[in-house]
Design brief:
With about 325 residues, the chain is α/β, with parallel strands linked by helices. The chain has 15 helices and 7 strands. It has 2 domains: about 210 residues, Rossmann fold, CATH 3.40.50.300; about 70 residues, no CATH class. Helix content is about 55%, strand content about 10%. It has a 7-stranded parallel β-sheet, sandwiched between helices. The structure holds guanosine-5'-diphosphate and magnesium ion. One of its GO terms (molecular function) is kinase activity.
Length: about 325
Amino acid sequence: MHPLAERISNQDERALAKAISTVENDSEEKLELLKDIHPMTGRAHYIGMTGSPGAGKSSLVNRLITYLRKQGLTVGVVAVDPTSPFSGGALLGDRVRMAEHFTDPGVFIRSMGTRGSLGGLSRTTKETVRLMDAFGFDVILIETVGVGQSELDIMKIADTIAVVLNPGSGDVVQVFKAGIMEIADLFVVNKADLSGVPKLLAELESMLDIVKHDAPWRPPIVKTVSVRNEGLEELWEKMQEHFAYSKKSGEREARRKTSLEREVIEVVHAEMMKKLVEQEESRDKSWIEEVTSGSVDPYSAAVRLLEDYVGRQSLRGRGWEGEKERSFDGEG
Ligand SMILES: Nc1nc2c(ncn2[C@@H]2O[C@H](COP(=O)(O)OP(=O)(O)O)[C@@H](O)[C@H]2O)c(=O)[nH]1
Ligand SMILES: [Mg+2]
């Protein structure tokens, strides 16, 4: 077993931190490590928290951590937000409030900055979640800004997806347009101390009537004022209700299946890409001269390189050397 996997199984937080760095740096040993921790995963409740910047996701995460710790639960947090106080981007006051958790061994917070980009932000985040799961946290909170394909993609690893909205923000239309309505399991109307709450609730309900009219789970709406610590109990209650529903209905299993399927494909794509780049680096670069001099057009050159690569991969050791030769010489 990979030494870090062994140490993670013994709840060694430094090993977890190192393992996350391994994943972030896209190190050679990463697949070995992930393979070894895989059997230890599958127990935690993954909760995604998404919403516009400033909606109050970090404040809610912070309050939720405190709330869950009081229930005796351990919490892992992955913040995918460059402006998150977890990554030092927000107001000093927020960071100070958050700081209390850094010394608590039952809480582990990691922010995915641009550091997550070596192996791709989405993949790195998901792998970090798996590592935290293997470590044994009861709940894993994933904070993302609800825009963009990679955020949507990250969210899909979650058992429960909470979408955070604010009154008076016009969020509902955005959420609807971005396709987030479909994947939401729960809506949080945060900043419920501000005006416009009844209007937002009415808009949400009518959108839900359309989008979720025949869905087996109608996402509940919870009002919170995170700065006053209001609504946290109900929020957690609804999250647990959804988790229970999700397990009972088979929804969780279905999502896990889809998610794992996607992760396998992502690994294949990423590893193939790496091989391709390696091969590209050691390749004869005469095609560059051919393309720049105009003796070969860029598209024929690309097809030739592609044939060369695909040929080498799939035909290796199958006695199809002639086929390979032909694509090397290229007719194009
Ligand atoms: N009035 C009010 N302000 C809030 C509430 N929750 C968060 N905020 C403020 O909204 C701002 C953005 O919060 P933050 O948690 O960083 O949002 P994030 O970008 O979604 O993570 C901060 O200044 C918070 O103090 C709330 O319930 N009511
Ligand atoms: Mg934030």
